[in-house]
Amino acid sequence: MLPLERHRLIVGLLSQHGVMRVNEIAQATRVSRETIRRDLSELERKGVLNRSHGGALLAENPPSTARGRQPGLPIQDGQGSFQQRTLLHSEAKTRLGRKALQLLQPGDTILLDSSSTSWFMARQIPEMTLTVITPSVAILQALMSRRSLHLIGPGGDFSPTEEAFFGEMTGRMLREYAIDTFFFSCQGLERDSGLYAGTDAHAAQIKQMMMAARRVVALVDGSKLGRLGVARIGGLGELDCLITEAFDDPLLEKEMTWHNVSIQIA
Asked: φ, ψ for residue 135 (rounded to 5)?
């Protein structure tokens, strides 16, 4: 991993977790602690973060470099690019994806969003008769060797950082298909405010996908429960099923029951 890529990932990690220790960042980026210490010193010099005892946190008022307005650190949202997000909570996302496979039936037409969680699900889809529609090039690449799958990739405006297509053209193509189930993830799920995405583009696309499917299933790891996000997708009533980790929030469970949303624990 190049230093610039590693710096982007570090900023994404700190945006999500707040304070992180050097050894935690080293494990997430798969480099030595000495390398991370040098990276943190460089980012501190640029005003992107503040060093704490044994770790670091983002600066309260970082320069534009930290917000992606310069080439140095183009963070799209609080969690970074698609590739960066695949490094976050990978075990939980794998479990969520495995649980979601239980909802598949031979002959189904399913729609997967461009989230890293859907990518973890896609990698576990077995050889079976399915039509898989997704704007994610990364997911299409993960599935292209499965001979029994019929893959459809709607076009649109390509985002290199998201490795996926967005825009009105994508939405128009989705309306041409009869989709059984839409699987997606989000940046945050809050019991009073609903579902949130990391960008306006993600929120708009997820809304289009919800309208195209007969059943809507959210795959949400525990780090996203109780969180808000950048752009609101809609209320909890938009869901038919929530696949998540074990949680202790009776009010959220009650709200889901009120909206007739089934909860499955991975």
From this structure: -85, 0
- Cα 13 to Cα 85: distance, rounded to the nearest angstrom: 9
**98-108 tens-digit pLDDT:** 999 999 999 99
Amino acid at 213: A
Quickly list DSSP for 199-233. Answer: SHHHHHHHHHHHHHEEEEEEEE-GGGBT---SEEE
Rounded Cα distance between 262 and 145, Å, is: 33
Domain 84-265 maps to which CATH number in 3.40.309.10, 3.20.20.150, 3.30.1050.10, 3.40.50.1360? 3.40.50.1360
Q: Does residue 185 carry a pLDDT above 60?
A: yes
* Residue 259, amino acid: H
Token pair belonging to 110: 């399913």
pTM for this entry:
0.73
Question: 3-state DSSP call for residue 265?
Answer: strand
1 confidence band (pLDDT: 50, 70, 90): low
CATH topology of domain 3-58: Arc Repressor Mutant, subunit A (1.10.10)
Query: Angle formed by the axes of helices 22-29 and 3-17, to 10°?
Result: 120
Distance CA 96, CA 121 (A): 7
Amino acid at 99: K
Residues in a beta bridge with 181: 110, 215
Where would I find the H helices in the chain?
3-17, 22-29, 33-45, 82-85, 90-100, 116-122, 137-143, 168-174, 200-212, 250-258
